[in-house]
């Protein structure tokens, strides 16, 4: 069973027998990390006895302070490369306290220097190393400090260094620290950060009938930078302990000069999934970089070319400040799926194109993403003043989600979307677990305990539960590489399933050879693929370059008995079952099981099986048209019709988005600009404008030194959701046209409540 860092911290807190107040809980997290504990009954040097008080360690966030010890103040040296305590208060460093976690801070002075200690001396550094820049997952910065109650004087603090677990003294670090006081000051410079470009606070949380007010994003991948081995295949973080400069740095380190090592991004974005010339790329892959420039790499603060969600799939589009701006516009529920792909990771690592921070296996990345989602919640809490204070709240029940949203915050549901779920591959590999009913129950219990509530049984590639749904193009090659089986497509497809990803022509016609038994030994030994990707691929170049097979194809197999067990066990736990990556025969079988159990389903890529999703109490996702027509309402007409369709099939008449950002899915492009729409467009979004709830005002969005233009760039990142909504509002006939969008969080939670009700009725 895998143990994540979150699980270890939870275990440590439970063993410590922490107090129920928030300060005690956060203090226990800190103690688990640093090894620092305080025993009761101590006596300080000032004669105080009993238990040391828990001084506030959260209220320093974003404040300006000097650091005093007795009659001396922490002061930068004349050379500017060190700190020491000196007698002049006027010369004292003015520190902006930037929270890096709960009760943990960067001390950033008025001239842009950090208080740092790597191995003892107190250094002043204007740039910091980080795990991202060093591509070293074990690296801990010496710039992070934890205020604690001083064991010498309980009315003062001591300052612990996170890197080496030692305490600040007057001339460096030691096991015993000096008492210090943080004195409020002026003259600080704020730590680098992106702006919200919005003002106001969330006020509206319900409708007059009591239903929740808010939009759901049913399908999101906030932390994809921790997928794919944690390297730079996907670049940029939603947050970083050391700030935006480390969350969103220049991607040249990973993607190479002018993006020439971003092979996956190039194939996916430049050529398109249907047009990538894989054989033409082989000489470039052997050479280690593309023969032509791919993209400009500058990150913070220039952001010359990225983020740009409509055209750039391998760069972060959900930095926490951008997500906060979307929250202010009405986004109140997000389903955060951990996603990754071991085949893509093995290719780039095996060819020496990019480095990783840990192994490429799917569940390694899933575990890390779960941990980092909790770390992101803590990080946002830390910026907001303490535990539970942030707007980003992970929830584990629909009742919690209701409480969070009614309280004016964003509820986050944890999910998984990956191919080799639980490492249960379709072909057993060395080191894989024995995937039987007991193992599946164990894994579901474990991930449920971590907060996972939504899950795809499969994603793209075959696994032990069901065939994958493929991709119809170059990503489909990965299914062959993942299993050693030829592609398994047939034209004998279920009549009642008319959609799905496994339909239409086969891009790799030469790889297709349908087999009689889905679970069977593979005819090709591709076990050396991770070590020598191109060598293995080259053995099959003749089959790869054969022309496409034209026809209406689907996967030649259905869900396995183990897959049916997985669905039943998910239903027993009231989990949200994501069905949209099931291939056609498996999709049909899943609905037979779901309808027999009267259990709701989530179709977050938009499938609804002619309304049967809604008849079960399930949800799908929506979108707006991009180009306006001659009459008002043309961009929202499809949305309005969809809401009526849902109502006609007995569903709750509301639907939210499923942006799939950071999931290699693209985003809404612009209306304006040459070739973007067939007819001239008018009425661009202008500033300022107010939210639909009229409680927040939005101004021109800026990222660093780059000003964004939704009209000509589209949905550059999630933070332009306000503009997307405003653009639709300007075209809608009335405000009521969009009301079902703002009821979509209510609709999703009703689906989740029904899942729990059915689990109880089924004896779960």
From TrEMBL:
Q: Does the keyword Signal apply?
A: yes
- Region (Disordered), start-end ranges: 24-55
Q: Which SUPFAM superfamilies match?
A: Metallo-dependent hydrolases
Read off the InterPro entries from this record: Metal_Hydrolase
Looking up Gene3D superfamilies in the UniProt record yields: Metal-dependent hydrolases (3.20.20.140)
Report keywords, A-Z: Signal
Locations of Low complexity compositional bias? 33-52
UniProt keyword annotation of Signal present? yes
Q: Where is the signal peptide?
A: 1-26
Q: Please give the name of this protein.
A: Membrane dipeptidase
Question: Which species is this UniProt entry from?
Answer: Enhygromyxa salina
